[in-house]
Amino acid sequence: MAMNSISGQIETLRQKLLETVDSYRGDFLHPNVLRISQELDTLIVNVQRRKQHQAQSPAAASRESGHAGL
């Protein structure tokens, strides 16, 4: 899945969350609000993990090839 697609999903869910909170008069504990919030959290965590993995990959490759610190 492309990062742009994930960014779009995050933005769509973020907007849906705002609308849902508004429809339940600011009740952040309503089950529908919590469900959408959890979906959004999951997407954000997945993006952060992917970014972390990508940031670590070049360093790991350097260590494995014996060029660490060069």
Automatic annotation (TrEMBL):
Pfam families: SpoOE-like. GO terms for molecular function: protein dimerization activity. Residues 49-70 are annotated as: Disordered. GO terms for biological process: regulation of sporulation. It comes from the Bacteria. This is Sporulation protein Spo0E. It comes from Tumebacillus avium.
